[in-house]
Amino acid sequence: MHETCRPLGLIWTDILRENLFKIGFLAKVILIFLLIPTVQVEWFVPFIVNWLNNPLTIPWALHLSSGGDQLSFPYGVIMFITHLPTTFIGWFIDSYTQSSYFAGVGFRISLLLADIFLLLLLLQIFEKFWKQILIYFWLSPVVLFVTYWHGVSDIIPIVLFFFSLSLIRQGKYSASGVLLALSIAAKHSMIIGTPFIFLYLWSHNGINKEFQRFIIYFVCSLILIELPFFFSESFRLMVINNREAEKIYWLFIKMNKDNLIFLTPLVYSLLLYSFWRIRKANFDLLLASMGVAFSVVILMTPAPPGWYLWLVPIFTLHQCRYGVGAVSLISIFSFLFVTYHLVYSSGPSLVVYDMPLVNLSFVYSSFAQSFHYTLMIGGGVLIALQILREGIRENDYYQLSNKPLVLGIAGDSGVGKSSFSRSLAAIFGERSLVEVSGDDYHNWDRSSPMWKTLTHLDPKANRLFELVKDVRSLIGGEVVRARHYDHSTGRFLPKKVRKTKDVILVEGLHTLYPKQLLEELDVRFFIEMDESLRLFFRTKRDVEERGHDSKKALHEFDKRKEDSEKYIKPQSARADVVFTLLPVNKDLFDQNQFGDSNMKLRVCIRNGIYYQELVRVLVGVCGLQVNLDSVDERGEVILEISGEVDSEDVGLAINMLVPHIYELLDLSPVFSKGIFGIMQIVTIIEIDEALKRRKI
Q1: In the Cβ-directed half-sphere of 573, how many Cα atoms lie within 13 Å?
Q2: In the chain, at which end, N or C, are there fewer CB atoms within 10 A of the end residue's CB?
């Protein structure tokens, strides 16, 4: 699922020209220098400054031994390290100015830097929502209140967490594992989202090399960072066993004297189980599920203001995708959140007057406070349900939970059906695609005397009724036991179990022959080849790969011509796309020196509504030569494509033509070069068109 993302440096250059960014940046800088949040001046800054004065001791141990509050810095090692450089600069200035002001400014500057970096990450992941992200995130009242008014540091672990997600999108699993470990080492609460990431990766690839690499780097990084401090009693007391973490157990049902049911862990576990039950989740559903998981923990505990910041990136995406309804609901929630905490949470002091700005709690009765809090929590619940509903709906479209996507590939022997099938398997992945080969449904093995009177191309020589039955069973979610034909020995292997997956690929000589099977196919492909090419490739395959005698292979080729004309070639009329492989120049054709570069591809698209965009990308991105042979009134388009293209350009072309299709592909799709790469591009577009029709 590697997606092409713009470098963060280029995004930074672009946002510097945005007025919305300038307005937000100026406002935040003013708040940094004008306000002194209470939690910073009483807890966070003294914690770091105390260590700067005595740097050879574990910070948490030093703090408690100096009589500091247990809640002063309930953050991990990475949070401390992140704040240290800018706080040190401020502390250094303070040592010369004989003040205590600049250390706090330095502390707050680190929050601003994290805020900017999170903006860059969101713009990188969701670039098409550029303007909306600048409004909904950069100018978010929740971010302004939590980070700059209240002054807590939760934006830092969120930055690291989303950096990890961005790297997953780019296929950088080792670095992603490290960043996820860093986010947890900054604030242990990020563990809430971690199991969802594990399940997301596992659902796409299983325990493959990428997943293993992610786990190894994650675990090793977390151990290396946390282990040196784990044996410190002060660290365990302030960070691991801090009193805020205990709040998740405050909401419970008392069954009897000795047994309680803790509701927050219970609901979280049920949500995690539901996510695990999804065969393969797309990225949107991952974000939605994590958003709901964070919401469960926040809304079902008396969460401090900083926890609500965890939701802002996901709230931002939700507003970008779903418009007025989502914007209105989140705006109301933000208003309720800010007004509630303006009254009841610790506020800052003005630098000039050194006095609290707000303290209005005395005007609220306990009932008014509870009612206000109830409205806020209710709004959060509605948003969480909306996010989950939309995430499931979008995932249903991509993941085909109601009915798998069924692809059919037909064509004569030796035209490249198997190679084309392998190229599709390489982009969808083993966990997403199950292949059904028509060769497995031959009536007899190679030694049978029946082949003297019949060829494999004759439908009577194949169990087509059984093929249709098995495909329908897979579509219905049933397990199928089918034998496999081994071409190297000419014998059938024992039956093996096949389970349904997101994509069912049916490949064979007669895939488009039975009417009953034709009706089940979402996209139908037919492959044909110039006869001189086919003779060369088929003979080479039969001799080198299947151990056939060369003379016998040539005899079989001639023997099958009549059946090919009668049973195979007519299937091309039933295909959505016909691929024809041709030599670039027949006059120069040399069997002994022939290769992929000597071929060109003719593509007949029966529904060519997208052909202009396809041609533009094939020429502009892939550098191919494309000739438009014909366009008829029915929408049938014939393109002739020649030239060489590498696999990277194929992936880039697909990303440009159908970017959202990556949710259906393997996390590490392997794109082909040359002709089969071009066929992958056309296939992906056809699949997208089929999914659109299904959605309607």
Answers
A1: 6
A2: C
